[in-house]
Amino acid sequence: MARSRRKSGSGGANKKLPLNQSIPLGIQHVFAMFAGNITVPLIVAGVFGVTTAEKIFLIQMALFAAGVATIIQTVGYKNIGSRLPIIQGTSFAFIPIMLPFKAFGLGAVFTAAFIGGIFQIWIGKMLKPIRHMFPPLVTGIVVLMIGISLLKVGFKYAGGGVWLMNNKPEIFANWEHLLIAGTVLVVALLCNLRGKGMVSAASILLGIIAGFVMAALLGEIRWGKIAAADWFAFPMPFQYGIDFVWGAVILMLFMSIVTTIETIGDISATTMGGANREATDKELSGGIMADGVGTAFASIFNAMPNTSYSQNAGLVAFTGVISRHVGTVAGVILILLGLFPKLGGIIAAMPDSVIGG
Description:
The chain is an all-alpha fold. The protein has helices at 2-10, 19-48, 52-75, 95-98, 106-125, 127-130, 136-158, 162-167, 175-194, 198-201, 203-217, 223-228, 246-275, 281-300, 310-319, 324-339, 341-348, 352-356; strands at 88-90, 306-308.
């Protein structure tokens, strides 16, 4: 009953919601993907041994590139873009193939990613003749596996985060972190199941706000993150130069195929969850090409390869809101977070258990 009520009020992908609705819903999407988006550059920066200033720069560029890539998806240009609320972000899947090239530096990684992005654009353009290779059974299994893998990540964050688990196991999953995560979960579920209108649609955001308040009461907010963040960060292209390494390029081409399958699954999950229909060939082809354009753009601006985020596809299914304009708002917010680190510092100040919840 609650699900059908949300569907009836959500409208189609082209429905424009008032700003007092679309902004909170866009912020909700940003919260859902923020932790994953900044974790990838943190891991890569740690392995490549960059300075603290460079690490902050990589995080800001990851936010900036994710915002631009998301807008490419939601707004679209000619045949590029799914024109659905597909939220883009840095991809965990590329981490294993990036780390072995530590000796060559980040320039080799970004150069290979650019070529991989161009290759993915070609895959999207040529999708129609090979569309039969990706039936709902295949894409459905991909989405299922992504969802199952995210459960493990969610539990780790709910306990306090991966860093806490590895460095301070004695306080990992203590009562404070579990209380914070539990507050987010309970409030989000109650708002979604019992709330009406915006209360139901913005249930995740309301849960996160409740978790933030609980974390503040418990003294778990890292206020220093906000104080230490700069006011403005200017995006600088090709900061690490261009370095063509055959091994990195070949692996990136292979991973472009893998992330294409993931994108097909996310787009299919978004249309099924938000509109109860299969994705069209045009949406799939445009979405894959936008994925490739986003990765190529990200590599120019020193960000890791981009992909569609499955947790945001799940958010669409949870709320029933499939308006692409909400995704555009999320993209604008991500760009602002990338350009104005103080804003990103507010989110980074939250304990990981809030995102885990």
